[in-house]
Amino acid sequence: MAAEVMLMNEIEAKAASMAIDLNIDFNSIQLPRGEDCGIVSDDEDVYHDDQLEFDSGFGNVIVVDNLPVVPREKFEKLEGVIRKIYSQIGVIKEDGLWMPVDPETKKTLGYCFIEYNTPQEAELAKEKTNGYKLDRAHIFAVNMFDDFDKYMRVPDEWAPPEIKPYTPGENLQKWLTDEKARDQFVIRAGTDTEVLWNDARQSKTELVYKRSYWTESFVQWSPLGTYLATVHRQGAAVWGGANTFNRLMRYAHPQVKLIDFSPGEKFLVTYSSHEPSNPHDANRVVINIFDVRTGKVMRDFKGSADEFTIGGAGGVAGVSWPVFRWGGGKEDKYFAKLGKNMISVYETETFSLIDKKSLKVENVVDFSWSPTDPILALFVPELGGGNQPARVSLVQIPSKVELRQKNLFSVSDCKMYWQSNGEYLAVKADRYTKTKKSTYTGFELFRIKERDIPIEVLELDNKNDKIIAFAWEPKGHRFAVIHGDNPRPDISFYSMKSSHNLGRVSKLTTLKGKQANALFWSPGGRFIVLAGLKGFNGQLEFFNVDELETMATAEHFMATDIEWDPTGRYVATAVTSVHEMENGFNIWSFHGKLLYRILKDHFFQFLWRPRPPSFLSAEKEEEILKYLKKYSKKYDAEDQDVSMLLSEQDREKRRMLKEEWEKWISEWRRASEEEKLERHRLRDGEASDEEEEYEAKEVEVEEILDFSEEVLFEE
Amino acid sequence: MRPILMKGHERPLTFLKYNRDGDLLFSCAKDHTPTVWFADNGERLGTYRGHNGAVWSCDVSRDSMRLITGSADQTVKLWNVQTGSQLYTFNFGSPARSVDFSVGDKLAVITTDPFMELTSAIHVKRIARDPAEQTEKSELVIKGPQGRINRAVWGPLNRTIISAGEDAIIRIWDSETGKLLREADKESGHKKTITSLTKSADGSHFLTGSLDKSAKLWDTRTLTLIKTYVTERPVNAVAMSPLLDHVVLGGGQDASAVTTTDHRAGKFEAKFFDKILQEEIGGVKGHFGPINALAFNPDGKSFSSGGEDGYVRLHHFDPDYFNIKI
Q1: How far is CA A294 from the centre of its chain?
Q2: Cα(B295)–Cα(B27) distance, integer angstroms
Q3: In this complex, which of B157, B204, B267 lies closest to A679 when CB atoms are compared?
């Protein structure tokens, strides 16, 4: 494009003389790659980053090569054939099929361009017809138009890659070294996303970083808290840094909907689903797995949504996220996907299937990984009207050896709950009663770390009780169950150990008639919040499971979300924008004291920044516990200082406010005095300013309503 | 403190006003009939019949002889407080929203809503001592281009007029010339419609309430922002205690959204704030709709609130109230 500067009226005049319509829909204009006509994009993200190339505008164009070369007479026939082939795959744009002709011979050149409505269709057409045999001599070679451009740009001469000198990166874990040992969290309200310190000592927050329009749908911390991921139309990005948040990496994935980190945060899985051009087809699903640090795509999966929707009892429609579940603890060694009659387990060395084939399991509907070990628990439902019982089995990866199996009879549904250390697995089995008209629930408890993996069956005291919630104590041996059909259900606590027998489950207590429907254990165990969300309007009970006593009851009216901070010191409760009113969050101490409360309209998200696991050995931790008094002295002193300082500051602030107010009052008195005479004049001389200092006198009025005398005779 | 429930209106309350002696309480509502009550026991004393539309506000003269009311029937009426008879009717081309007597009761400032092609306006009328001599003539008309003006009151010595309304900006006008003297700072000012404005007893400062869920205290002469009180609900009504350093905010969720939520979620509370420290000190519950009107008895020992629910609630404070320490 010539870089001439024209005045607008010149352009209009010229356009008029050439009969060009200037009323252009600017959104329809797509400039060639690398050409911005000198217009600086106001989107700083797009403008500054050349590393990633998103839409060039020709992503929906394919080039079909190896067509027959035909003379003019046969042109239309060939065009018809091509149109027929390619319009089966997607909607070709109007005038979207172009077959160039040699201007001299009038013969076709043996290739054509096809423009689809969407890049997805173009890609699908490429996949489906590359290598299509029109006849023996003409085997289609189909390429994306963009690819030509890409390969053309490869320089002919090999140039040695530039070696950049090593620059040490920022300490991405610096937030862990906070002097006051505070934790961070991210909130999203309106268009703003903020990362804040929870300064519980001062009962307030301290801003770390704030940005408007940081993400287009949501934010998510990586599992160890190193990165904050944002989601955009063009892909996902991760942010982090020592003192602020810089963009560390971007992951191109157009229209990404969901993201998931591997537990060791080495990999990022991104997911998008695209409307098919043919409404009868299923949505097209694209899943990419990126290396978080390099940003490289390690593996991509594309296919129709049907291939990703298997699983969940009864095979409910819709992809269940995450599609890929990570196993083997924090090493990020394996990931697996549920398929039809199989579980596909991949390993991350080569990003291919283990032993090059999936694990065949007839009719498998659900599986889950142990949080710490490469062990899979899978569930196969009952088949053949009860002839073949339902089954839960544990499979070791990569050996694919079945460690343990349990057959379950007349089971309608199963749910698996792993304890966070992978020591126990609880399988909640809903069984039909003999009449098959109703169900009751029992638990199969697996002790994974013990020899031969013993299984124990647990039924509730009243086995017909409906189970409302189940939760393991993190790193512990206890679990809590909310059960019952009453409006106010019961909550029971169990331990996997009994006082006499370490291998037997025992009930600790049952709390009757609680307004709770959700359980939130402290990440450190021992404490639990029994919460009544939704119908219970945000009832909270802070319970100590060691002492089996309630520490506090409270309410956060209409609370929708509850989350413990990663250290188990504080609890955040939030009312998100599902409710119109009262949006915002409360921060509580672990024992249920409200520390502070922040209101924000259009409140969407509250997420504590996770912490990586502690480096302290078990012995060291025990030692600290033993000498806790010694260590805590220092912190107690600090706390005292802070509270002294606070009350001092508070007093100072009040004094200032009062002083300031006094100044206003005296100013007003003065002005009022000045205007006194004028005011009297306005009131026709009624001198009554003093009356404005109102004085109320109490007047007692006694009124005799009736008076009569009666003489009473005595017998 | 058991409130006295005063049921006399059939439609939502719009405005409440005590006379200077604090023995009478005037109430306006969307049901056409302003009502006067004994401020002590809540007994109904009488009504003022004659309006043909919602009555938006009223004011009573210092000697408690004259009542002025502004109504959606496009009139402002003067009444004899004692007899309830109409003395005079001012006619306008659009609904009258706010009325306020000047110091000395010789002038009244009236605001009218934008209607059809008419813009909103502030009118100053001279109030004759003898109703027979009353004329329609305006002393001054200020045409406001900016949305509805919800409240206009006199500044010190009747030299200025303070107006506030839908465009969220408080303005001070010269009451002689109609010139705009001051505009509140946009940065620190309200962000949404100002619903109410009330002056302190000595007129030195005033309090505004807004749908932006806050109330602000301003200096009348300089229009300096002095305090901001933040709440969780849109504020429809504000009042200041003449006795203690307390302000009261009333409001609640939009009337249109009321039926969709629990009454507890509506927060139809009158919220008390410390005037100086700007901290919330308490709340008075009771209404089952948003609070539209609030007024303090000039003795500071009772206050009343009027709700969308059609009730006026009259509260006499307990002795503890006068010893609140924070």
Answers
A1: 22
A2: 10
A3: B157
CA distance A144 to A33: 15
Instruction: Tell me the pLDDT tens digit for each residue of A126-183.
Output: 888 888 888 888 888 888 888 877 777 777 788 787 887 877 778 888 999 988 889 9
Average pLDDT over residues B23-45: 93
Closest-CA residue in chain A for B275?
A661
**Interatomic CA distance for residues A690 and B202, integer angstroms:** 11
DSSP for A43-101, written as a single string: -HHHHH--SS----S-TTEEEEESPPP--HHHHHHHHHHHHHHHHTTS-EEEEEEE--B
Q: What is the ipTM of this complex?
A: 0.84
> What is the C-alpha separation between B281 and B283, in angstroms, rounded?
7
CA distance A384 to A365: 16
Contact A672 B62 (CB under 8 A): no
CATH of the structural domain B3-322, one choice from 1.50.10.10, 2.130.10.10, 3.30.70.100, 2.40.10.10: 2.130.10.10
Q: Evaluate whether A507 touches A459 at the Cβ level (below 8 Å).
A: no
Q: Inter-chain contact A678–B157, Cβ cutoff 8 Å?
A: yes
Q: Give the C-alpha separation, A56 to A54, whole Å.
A: 6
Which of B205, B228, B232, B326 should one mutate to test binding to chain A, selecting the residue with the greatest count of A CBs within 10 A? B232
pLDDT digits (tens, 9 = 90+) for A353-396: 988 888 888 888 889 999 998 999 999 988 877 788 889 999 99
Our CA-based measurement puts residue A656 at a distance from the nearest CA of chain B, in whole angstroms, of 10
Q: Which of A654, A683, A696 sits opposite B277 (nearest CB)?
A: A654
DSSP string, B78-92: EEETTT--EEEEEE-
CB contact under 8 A, B201 and A694: yes
Chain B residue with CA closest to A666: the answer is: B204
CB atoms inside a 10 Å sphere around CB A279 = 6
Q: Is residue A47 very low, low, confident or very high in pLDDT (cuts 50, 70, 90)?
A: very low
User: In angstroms, how far is the first alpha carbon of chain B from the final one?
Assistant: 20
Which residues of A fall within a CB distance of 8 Å from B242? 694
Indicate yes or no: pTM above 0.95.
no
Whether residue A109 contacts residue A101, with contact meaning beta carbons closer than 8 Å, is answered with yes
- DSSP conformation letters of A568-634: SSEEEEEE-TTSSSS-EEEEEETTS-EEEEEE-SSEEEEEEPP-PPP---HHHHHHHHHTHHHHHHH
A645 token code pair: 């300082």
In B, which residues are within 8 Å of A537 by CB distance? 262, 264
Give residue for tokens 């991921």. Answer: A229
List, as ranges, residues 685-714 from A with C-beta within 8 Å of B: 692, 694, 696
Shortest distance, CA B154 to any CA of chain A (angstroms): 13
Cβ-Cβ contacts under 8 Å, B319 against chain A: none
Each domain of chain B, given as residue ranges in start order, spans 3-322
CA distance B190 to chain A (A): 16
Instruction: Determine the pLDDT at residue B265.
Output: 53
Among the partner residues A658, A683, A694, nearest to B298 by beta-carbon distance: A694
Q: Which residue of B has its CA nearest to A673?
A: B202
CA angle A435, A439, A443 (to 5 degrees): 130
**Residue A398: is the preceding peptide bond cis (ω within 30°)?**
yes
With beta carbons under 8 A apart, name residues in chain B contacting A678: 157
A53 — contact with chain B (CB < 8 Å)? no
Enter the DSSP assignment of B205. E
Q: Do A692 and B276 touch (CB under 8 A)?
A: no
Rounded distance between C-alpha atoms, residue B151 and residue A202, angstroms? 41
Q: How many Å apart are CA A558 and CA A143, to the nearest integer?
A: 55
Q: Would the CB atoms of B104 and A684 count as touching at under 8 Å?
A: yes
